[in-house]
C-alpha cells in the first residue's frame, strides 16, 4: 500500500488545528508552518505525479478495508496532476498573502487556508462519490471563512450568496447519491463503473436522474451558465489571495465532470447517451460567450477578472463536452493555463487597488508601481485573452482542433473566435484606462500616493506569470502528458482493477462465490 497518497490530505488537516491551538496569536509561526506545509505538499504531489506518469494507479485503503466497502484514495495521472497544480498555486498565493499582509486582517487565515487545501486535495484523490460530497462540504466551510476574511458588509453579503448557491448544490448532490445507492448499492466509483454498465435498459430511470443531478451539481461548482450567478460577486468581493486560490475551485467541478462521466457514465453508456452533447455543450458555449461579454461590460477590474473566470470555464467545458481523448487533453492543458492566468489577474487587481481609491475602470491617478504592475497586467491579459504566443493561444488552438470533426464544429469555432475578440477588446479597454489614461492625471492636491506594495507581492505574481511562460515553452511535453492522461481516462480498466482487486481486511467476493 502506498501511504504517501494520503499525505496531501492529512498534512493540511493536521497543520490547521495546530495553527489554531498553538500559534493563534503568533503570525510569524503561522507563516512559517503554513509555507513549510505548502512546500511539503509540492514535494509530495510532485513525487506522486512522477509515480503516476508511467500510467501507474496508486491505491490507499483507509484502515486497510478493501473497496467497495472501505474508503479509498486513488492516484492516477489526472488526480496527481490536479493536486500538483493546487500545491504550486497555493505557494504563490500564500507568498502574496504574506507580502501584502492580507493574512493579518484576521486571526484564522492560515488555518482556513490549510483546511481549504485539505478539501481540494481530498476531492481530487477520493475514489468514492460520498467522500467527494464530504470534501465538497469541507471546501464550502473553509472557503466561506476565507471569503469573509477581513470583514465588510459587501464581502459578507457575497459570502452568504456563495453559501446559499453551494448549499443548493449540496442538496442536489445528496439526492443524486441517494438515487445511485438505491439503484446500485454502492458509491465507490470503480464499483459503480461496473454495476451501472450492467443495469437493464428498462430499469435506468434512477440512474438517468442521478446523472442529470450530478451534472447540475458539478456545473454549479464550475460556474457553468445558467448556474453561474454566484461567482462574479463572490470572487470580486473576496480578498485577493482568496480569489486567486479560488481559481482552482471551479476546476474541482470540471475535474468531477471528467472523472464521473468518463468512468461511471461514459459517452457510450446507453442510459445517459446524449447528456453531454445535448445539454453540456450548449451550456459551455453560452458560458464562454457570457463570460467574455461580461469582461467587455465590467465597470470594475475585479468583476472583469471574475467574468473572465466564467469565460475560461466555458472554454474548458467546451473541450470537456466533446468527450473525446483529444477534447479532454485540450481541456486539461487549458485548465492549467486558466488557473494560473486567473490567479495572476486577481493578484494584479489587488496591486492596482493599493494605489487607487477604487477598482472602477475610470481614469484616476497613476497606481503605485505602475510600470511593473502594467507590464504584469499586459502579460496576464494576453494570456487570458488567448493571444499568441502564450499558452492561452495554444490551448484554444488545441480545443478548436479537437472540435473540428464534431457535429458542432461551426458553433465551436464561431463562439471561441468571437469571444476571443470580445475579450481582447475588454482587456484592452481596462488596461488603457488603468495605466495609460491615468498618466496625465495628477494626484489630488495635498494627498500622498501610497507606497508601492511589498516586493514579495510582486515575486508571487511574477512566479505565476513565469509558470505561464513555462507552460508555453514546454507546451509539447505538457500536451504529451495530458494526452496520455486522457487516454488513461478512456481506458479505465486498470483503474477499476486496482481499486477492486487489491486485497484488504474485507475484499469483494469473487465471481465464483456469487
Automatic annotation (TrEMBL):
Family: Belongs to the CPA3 antiporters (TC 2.A.63) subunit D family.
PANTHER family named in the record: NA(+)_H(+) ANTIPORTER SUBUNIT D1, NADH DEHYDROGENASE
InterPro entries: CPA3_Na-H_Antiporter_D (IPR050586), NADH_UbQ_OxRdtase (IPR003918), ND/Mrp_TM (IPR001750)
Keyword Cell division (UniProt): no
UniProt GO cellular component terms: plasma membrane
Entry keywords, A to Z: Cell membrane, Membrane, Transmembrane, Transmembrane helix
Stretches that traverse the bilayer: 32-50, 81-99, 106-126, 132-150, 162-182, 205-231, 238-258, 278-297, 304-324, 330-349, 370-390, 410-431, 452-474
Cell compartment(s), UniProt: Cell membrane; Membrane
Membrane topology summary: Multi-pass membrane protein
Domain NADH:quinone oxidoreductase/Mrp antiporter transmembrane: residue ranges: 127-421
Protein name in the entry: Monovalent cation/H+ antiporter subunit D
Amino acid at each position: 500500500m502506498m501511504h504517501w497518497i494520503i499525505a496531501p490530505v492529512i498534512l493540511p488537516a493536521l497543520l490547521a488545528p495546530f495553527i489554531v491551538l498553538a500559534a493563534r496569536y503568533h503570525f510569524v509561526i503561522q507563516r512559517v508552518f503554513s509555507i513549510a506545509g505548502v512546500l511539503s505538499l509540492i514535494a509530495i504531489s510532485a513525487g506522486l505525479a512522477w509515480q503516476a506518469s508511467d500510467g501507474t494507479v496508486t491505491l490507499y485503503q483507509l484502515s486497510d478495508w478493501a473497496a467497495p466497502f472501505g474508503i479509498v484514495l486513488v492516484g492516477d495521472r489526472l488526480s496527481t496532476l490536479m493536486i500538483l497544480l493546487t500545491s504550486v498555486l497555493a505557494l504563490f498565493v500564500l507568498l502574496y498573502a504574506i507580502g501584502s499582509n492580507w493574512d493579518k486582517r484576521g486571526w484564522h487565515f492560515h488555518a482556513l487556508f490549510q483546511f481549504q487545501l485539505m478539501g481540494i486535495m481530498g476531492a481530487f484523490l477520493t475514489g468514492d462519490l460520498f467522500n467527494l460530497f464530504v470534501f465538497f462540504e469541507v471546501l464550502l466551510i473553509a472557503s466561506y471563512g476565507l471569503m469573509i476574511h477581513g470583514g465588510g458588509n459587501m464581502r459578507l453579503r457575497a459570502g452568504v450568496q456563495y453559501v446559499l448557491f453551494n448549499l443548493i448544490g449540496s442538496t442536489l448532490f445528496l439526492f443524486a447519491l441517494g438515487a445511485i445507492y438505491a439503484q446500485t448499492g454502492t458509491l465507490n466509483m470503480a464499483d459503480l463503473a461496473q454495476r451501472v454498465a450492467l443495469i437493464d435498459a428498462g430499469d435506468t430511470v434512477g440512474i438517468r436522474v442521478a446523472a442529470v443531478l450530478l451534472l447540475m451539481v458539478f456545473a454549479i461548482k464550475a460556474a457553468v451558465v445558467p448556474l453561474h450567478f454566484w461567482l462574479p460577486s463572490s470572487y470580486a468581493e473576496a480578498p485577493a489571495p482568496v480569489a486567486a486560490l479560488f481559481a482552482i475551485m471551479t476546476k474541482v467541478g470540471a475535474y468531477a465532470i471528467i472523472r464521473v462521466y468518463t468512468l461511471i457514465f461514459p459517452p457510450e453508456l446507453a442510459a445517459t447517451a446524449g447528456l453531454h452533447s445535448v445539454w453540456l455543450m450548449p451550456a459551455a458555449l453560452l458560458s464562454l460567450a457570457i463570460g467574455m461579454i461580461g469582461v467587455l461590460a465590467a465597470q470594475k477590474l475585479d468583476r472583469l477578472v471574475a467574468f473572465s473566470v466564467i469565460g475560461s470555464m466555458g472554454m474548458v467545458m467546451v473541450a470537456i463536452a466533446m468527450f473525446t481523448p483529444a477534447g479532454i487533453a485540450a481541456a486539461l492543458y487549458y485548465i492549467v493555463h486558466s488557473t494560473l492566468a486567473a490567479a495572476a489577474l486577481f493578484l494584479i487587481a489587488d496591486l492596482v487597488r493599493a494605489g487607487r481609491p477604487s477598482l472602477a475602470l475610470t481614469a484616476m491617478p497613476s497606481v503605485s508601481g505602475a510600470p511593473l504592475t502594467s507590464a504584469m497586467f499586459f502579460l496576464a491579459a494576453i494570456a487570458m485573452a488567448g493571444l499568441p504566443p502564450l499558452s492561452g493561444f495554444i490551448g484554444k488552438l488545441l480545443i478548436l482542433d479537437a472540435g473540428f470533426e464534431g457535429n458542432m464544429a461551426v458553433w465551436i469555432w464561431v463562439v471561441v473566435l468571437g469571444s476571443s475578440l470580445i475579450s481582447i477588446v475588454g482587456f484592452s479597454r481596462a488596461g488603457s484606462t488603468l495605466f495609460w489614461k491615468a498618466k496625465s492625471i495628477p494626484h489630488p492636491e495635498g494627498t500622498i500616493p501610497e507606497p508601492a506594495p511589498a516586493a514579495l507581492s510582486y515575486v508571487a505574481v511574477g512566479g505565476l506569470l513565469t509558470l505561464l511562460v513555462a507552460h508555453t515553452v514546454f507546451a509539447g511535453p505538457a500536451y504529451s502528458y495530458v494526452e496520455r492522461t486522457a487516454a488513461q481516462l478512456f481506458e479505465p480498466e486498470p483503474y477499476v482493477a486496482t481499486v477492486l482487486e487489491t486485497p484488504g481486511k474485507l475484499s469483494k467476493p469473487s465471481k465464483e462465490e456469487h
